[in-house]
Amino acid sequence: MTIDWSRERLLIYAPHPDDETLGCGGLMAKVKNAGAEIYVQFVTVGDTADLSTKGYSTADERFAEIKKVADHFRWDDWNVAFPGDEYHLKLDAIPRFELSNAFERHSPLSIAEIEPTVVLAPHRTSYNQDHQVTAEAVHTALRPSDTRKRHHPRVVAAYEEAADQWRYDAAPSPNLLVELAETDLDTKLAAMCMYGTQTHEHPHTRSEATLRSLAVLRGMQGGVALAEGFHTMRWLA
Fold first, then answer.
1. What is the pLDDT of residues 149-185, one digit of tens each?
2. Residue 90's domain spans which residues?
3. How many whole angstroms separate alpha carbon 74 and alpha carbon 30?
4. Helix, strand, coil: what percent of the chain each, to 5?
5. What is the pLDDT of residues 78-105, one digit of tens each?
6. What CATH number is associated with residue 109?
7. Residue 2: inside a domain
8. In this predicted model, what pLDDT tens digit does every residue of 47-61 receive, in sequence order?
9. For the chain, how many structural domains are there in total?
10. Strand pairing partners for 231?
């Protein structure tokens, strides 16, 4: 089965800046070149402890990185729903009702506003609490209902990150593989380099070697050179 990406409008949920690139950077490169629209809804960003010399990266630094990556991928728009240290890495303290409503209709990039044809979000089995909460809130916002009254994207899927496997109940292998060209992967890896506060040398879940290895593995499973994997929750043909 193939998708005419030139006709699609993607809405991608990223708990933090870089999750969208880790999970579907290759897909974003592929579909944008085909003519698709791409909107990225970040959920939160704040000062972040890291392994750099100074020991942390500021929210301002991370916003500057987002702007570079947005230009790199040519996103149509992006937004941060809950910025600030009071939310960053604390999304599990926000009521599901509030998060789901933001995603469904209150954010500038809400489902009601964008009317996406494809929605991508993190997988709920991630060990990261912000990823879990985001996945569940998106799931609630996209609950089945009368399509005459609420917009329903045709495709709803979860992207994967290498770090998601750090769970005893980790998700099984993806059931949707999207073939990537070498240039798509190169675009993804270049974007990760722009997230300078978040990239690391190998061995690390966010290293270039890890990202390339996962693309090679998913490609092998589909009988092609490179691919990204997704877990589909809805596919309306």
1. 999 999 999 999 999 888 888 888 999 999 999 999 9
2. 7-235
3. 12
4. 40, 20, 40
5. 999 999 999 999 999 999 999 999 999 9
6. 3.40.50.10320
7. no
8. 988 766 677 889 999
9. 1
10. 158
pTM of model > 0.70: yes
Look at residue 169 and tell me if it is in a domain: yes
CA-to-CA separations, 32 to 10, 25, 221, in angstroms, rounded: 10, 11, 24
Count other C-beta atoms under 10 Å from residue 176's C-beta.
17
Asked if the structure places residue 1 within a domain, the reply is no
Rounded CA gap, 184 and 179, in Å? 9
45-52, Cβ contacts within 8 angstroms, sequence gap of 24 or more: 45/16, 45/17, 45/80, 45/83, 45/88, 46/83, 46/84, 46/85, 46/86, 46/87, 46/88, 46/89, 47/85, 47/88, 48/88, 48/89, 48/197, 50/197, 50/198, 51/200, 52/197
Mean pLDDT of 64-72: 98
Q: How far is Cα 34 from Cα 78, in angstroms, rounded to an integer?
A: 20
Amino acid sitting at position 128: N
Residue 145, domain member (yes or no): yes
Number of Cβ within a 10 Å radius of residue 205:
16
